[in-house]
Amino acid sequence: MPRIPLSWLAEHVALPAGATAESVAADLVRVGLEEEAIHPAAVTGPLVIGEVVSVSPEAQRNGKTINWCRVDVGPEHGEVREDGTVGPRGIVCGAHNFDVGDRVVVALPGAVLPGPFPIASRKTYGHVSDGMICSARELGLGEDHDGIIVISRMGLDAEPGTDARELLGLGEEVLEINVTPDRGYCFAMRGVAREYGHSTGAAFTDPGLPGTVTDVAAVTRPAAGGFAVEIADDAPIDGAPGCDRFVAQVVRGVAASGPSPTWMQRRLTQAGMRPISLAVDVTNYVMLDLGQPLHAYDLGLVAEPVVVRRARPDDALTTLDDVERTLHPEDLVITDSPEGRTGARVLGLAGVMGGAQTEVSAVTTDLLLEAAHFDPVSVARTSRRHRIPSEAAKRFERGVDPQVARVAVARAVDLLVAHGGGVADDALTDVDRTPTEPTVELAVDLPARLVGVPYTPAEVTETLEAIGCRVAPSGDTDRATLHVTVPSWRPDLRVGVDLVEEVARLRGYDAIPSELPAAPSGRGLTPEQRARRAVATALADDGWTQTLSYPFVGAEQHDALGLPADDARRRALRLANPLADTQPEMRTNLLTTLLETARRNVGRGATDVALYEIGLVTRPLPDAPPAPQLPGGVRPSDDDLARLAAAVPPQPRRVAGFLAGARERAGWWGPGRRGDHADAIAAALLVARTVGVTVQVRADADHAPWHPGRTARVELADGTLVGHAGELHPQVLARLDLPARSVAWEVDLDVLLGAAPREPLQALPVSTFPVGKEDLALVVDADVPAGDVEAAVRDGAGDLLEEVRLFDVFTGPQVGEGKKSLAFSLRLRAADRTLTAADAAAVRDAAVAEAGRRTGAVLRGA
To answer: Could you give phi then psi for residue 483, rounded to 5 degrees?
Structure first.
């Protein structure tokens, strides 16, 4: 986020006397620039100018020589003697680059320097040092630590006792603002000053105009004869050229590697950038001021012509951060062709970062300055592809004013010549292919209709002209329409609603009435939403803890679950830009990610775990068509939407759970109970029961990742698969470092919701008559599912049956080889009478008969 020193902002817009960062932030927020932070002054407390009166070198035992100094800090800050007079303060200093008569910066006791480093009187080297003579580094003005600041060498002059914070700008607050991506012009002082003028009406002076440079002719005269530049972008992205303007200027005899002036270093530091050298600091300073990134090449290391083109397969570049990068064919690059070299040499990634080969060094005296305009999409993709979020890329990808390039170069030349000597060549290169500024047609009543505020045509016109638009009526007498030519620094204004937003923003959001629409009656959650909430509540009430996981998986996770190679769950949708290379696919089942959550919990010491998740999975179809490329800016046709819908893979909603450790904990009530496959099946049945669907449970021989002999298949009455539940395979548990005998379940909630009754459930009267109880044990073949027997018992018992529950399964010689005994508990109740023994016996006999007919069951002991 850009940082705004108020003194810098005041150079472009008239700030009122006494303006603070807080007050400026309040003014900017009215036009949509929100405050991110206010950075306090770098130095607090007394920091003054002092004149060195005497210097006494004193050698120390450690071999170091210190200076015992007397420093005149003015009558208000001097040392008060016993006779009441005021004299110089005594200060110990270890530096030696100053002498008697020099004026220096003195931090008096009570001052706090960056660090924070509080200053106090203290005894050292046999003296009481009553303050500190400061270096640039100690004040946060640069990296020079050994050299004391002598203000006369900085081109400054002030009397002893003068406030040095104001003189050096160290007492200034810095405002940091939050800029939305569509307003990239506010990444410069020029843009922020313009917006402050819109908010307050303060006079704004545009620093991007030709009249703001020393040599106006350098900006206005035709460009010819300069350093040769060619634009050869033969592979534009989305039809947009990668570069449509390139300005180049040669400056010779410059002390390019020398330090920049102190005021510039201070401003760069306040803006959050580190001063480096004159050439680098000047280009950064102009970028922060105008918003136009610049780059300085060592002229002696660049050969004509410079060519802007797309990267080739064998191109590589070592960027300024000393990283060697393999380039992509979509990367826009700056190249040259040195004599004697086969092919071209890449000098930098256009709009992102320059190359190390042509970097300005300690011996550089001749510079080639570049100010270009690059396509935002191209720069954004290159920046992300190579992970280089440079300051230049941040601005180019948000849109840079293509008309400010000449002014930016001229400003940089002025600063280089003024502070580093040298002279600029008369010849200038300006390859200008920028398109004409777009014109947007705007119905004059559209702002009022969309915003709800009755803006007059005059207000609309006045507002648009204030932001730099040229407004002209259409000439159509049948409708009031404006032709609005948008300014070059606002690439975000492309359609009528963009202009409407500007009118609403600058006329004031507070002028828009706040009227809440009346809430329509009779609306609420859909039946599906209510069912999902009911399932979540039921599982939570049953002791399960809900979790959420990212839906991204990798092929290794499918391997860990033991999915067969031809399993449909391995056919996953692959992401074009995954968050992690190890998880590039969308999950096809919930257990894949839920088991990762379980492993994380178990790995951190959880022993008893009962987790569940409700979420979507993605199940691509093998014959699905590819997604169409839809046009932008217009509504797709019905055919386009149909093809898009056909390409979107099904995304059913699932519910899954994992259980390890104790299901019932031990306590005074008993020893507790370990969770097993029956608990997993019970949870799946709980989900179905909550939705209102009756399901069947059958044994499933083999379905990864479950144990082959301890897995249940849950299905509807017509055989439609709902899900699976049971004990996980031991090998899966071992691969995932999960406890042995852990169980899991997963059901398709969409299938259950599709089978749920659509009519509201009718409440039945509560019977006040007592319950009757019957137990029966049925012997069946060992391979007969208990669920089939229970269903037969339920159907045979009829309307008097209130509940049937399987409470015992027995095998042994008592029931015969290949047989098992299933014991059921029946609860019977009538709505109109107390049941007799004969009634209960009749229900019992009917249940046994139906079970015998359907499953071959016989009553045990009969």
So the answer is: -100, 115
Helical H runs in 636-781?
638-647, 677-691, 730-735, 749-755
Q: In angstroms, rounded to a whole number, what is the distance separating the alpha carbons of residues 662 and 608?
A: 5
Interval 404-459: pLDDT, tens: 999 999 999 999 999 999 899 989 999 999 999 899 999 999 999 999 899 999 99
Domain residue extents for the chain? 3-40+173-206, 47-168, 211-432, 441-510, 527-617+652-755, 772-859
Say how many C-beta atoms besides its own lie within 10 A of residue 782's C-beta.
Answer: 11
- What is the rounded distance in angstroms from the CA atom of residue 820 to the CA atom of residue 716? 25
The domain 527-617+652-755: what is its CATH number? 3.30.930.10
pLDDT, mean of each 10-residue run, the chain (862 residues) = 90 91 92 88 88 93 90 91 87 91 93 88 91 86 70 78 83 87 92 94 91 80 87 82 93 91 84 87 95 94 92 89 91 82 79 91 92 94 92 93 94 93 91 91 91 92 93 73 92 92 91 83 84 96 96 95 93 92 95 96 94 96 87 82 92 97 90 92 96 90 89 92 96 96 97 89 85 94 89 93 92 91 95 93 94 93 72
Residue type, 795: D
On the question of a cis peptide bond just before residue 118, with omega within 30 degrees of 0, the verdict is no
743: CB partners within 8 A, 6+ apart: 658, 659, 660, 675, 676, 677, 679, 680, 725, 726, 727, 728
CATH superfamily label, 47-168: Nucleic acid-binding proteins (2.40.50.140)
Query: 3-state class of 831 per DSSP?
Result: coil
pLDDT at 233: 86
* 548 exposure class (CB count in 10 Å sphere: 0-12, 13-18, 19+): exposed
Cα(387)–Cα(376) distance, rounded to whole angstroms? 16
In the block, tokens 């009187």 appear at 121
CA 430/CA 407 separation, integer angstroms = 12
Residue 683's contacts (CB-CB under 8 Å, 6 or more residues apart) are 539, 542, 544, 612, 657, 659, 725, 745
Contact 549, 543 (CB under 8 A): no
The pairing of beta strand 609-616 with beta strand 545-546: parallel
What is the helix (H) or strand (E) element at residue 278, kind and residue range?
helix 278-290
Name the architecture of domain 441-510: 2-Layer Sandwich (3.30)
Name the H helices within 483-622. Answer: 496-507, 527-541, 555-560, 590-603
Cα gap 87→78, rounded to integer Å: 5
- Residue partners of 556: CB distance under 8 A and separation at least 6: 582
CA distances from 748 to 563, 714, 716, 720 (A): 19, 10, 11, 11
Per-residue pLDDT tens digits for 136-167:
888 876 665 558 888 877 667 789 999 888 77
DSSP H helices in 119-180: 164-168
Per CATH, which fold does 211-432 belong to? Answer: Phenylalanyl-tRNA Synthetase; Chain B, domain 3 (3.50.40)
Quote the CA–CA distance of 25 and 10 in Å, as a whole number.
14
d(CA 333, CA 315): 10
What pLDDT score was predicted for residue 476? 63
pTM check: above 0.70: no
**Which of 806, 782, 809 has its CA nearest to residue 792?**
806
Contact 825, 775 (CB under 8 A): yes
3-state secondary structure of 217: helix
Q: Which two tokens stand for residue 398?
A: 């948000």
DSSP states of 748-798: EHHHHHHHS-SSPPPPPPPP-SPPEEEEEEEEEETTS-HHHHHHHHHHHHG
What's the angle, vertex CA 445, arms to CA 439 and CA 451, rounded to 5? 100
Burial (CB < 10 A; 0-12, 13-18, 19+), residue 178, is middle
Q: Could you tell me the sign of the dihedral formed by the alpha carbons of 275, 276, 279, 284, in that order?
A: negative
